Amino acid sequence: QVQLVESGGGLVQAGGSLRLSCAISGRTLNIYTVGWFRQAPGKEREFVARISWDGPVTYYSDSVKGRFTVSRDNANQYLQMNSLTPEDTAVYYCAASGLVNALHRNHFEYWGQGTQVTVSS
């Protein structure tokens, strides 16, 4: 099993920044992709960004491209979020997949508990 624990969420004003962290532990030998998703109230969980486990290959949703940066080192994954807007308000989830270049939420087998990000206008 793989365990994921997010941290770093909070309340920030529009235009501000936050950095989310995800501690990854357990049997990571078969993990090939780690990523971030978010879910706003009344909406489906949506893809935000992903990074390959063994290299710097990244991919972003159009809504965050140029503002968010995903990275990882050892057993941690990060999401640097800049120029935040109220539309970024959501619960953010860290996820891990045994698939290369996983993208859809159904491709990710392991999930964290989520961390709330609230952006005020």
Helix and strand arrangement:
Blueprint: E1 2-7, E2 10-13, E3 18-26, E4 33-39, E5 46-52, E6 58-60, E7 68-73, E8 76-81, E9 90-97, E10 110-111, E11 115-120
Parallel strand pairs: 2-11
Antiparallel strand pairs: 1-3, 3-8, 4-5, 4-9, 5-6, 7-8, 9-10, 9-11
Question: What ranges have pLDDT less than 50 throughout 5 or more consecutive residues?
Answer: none
Question: Helix/strand/pairing class, anyone?
Answer: mainly beta
Q: What does the overall shape look like?
A: globular
Spell out the helices and strands N to C.
EEEEEEEEEEE
**Helical stretch count?**
0
Q: What is the end-to-end distance?
A: 40 Å
The helicity comes to: under 10%
Tell me the number of strands. Answer: 11
Averaging pLDDT over every residue, what do you get?
95
Strand content: over 45%
Radius of gyration: 13 Å
> Quick one: biggest sheet?
7 strands, mixed
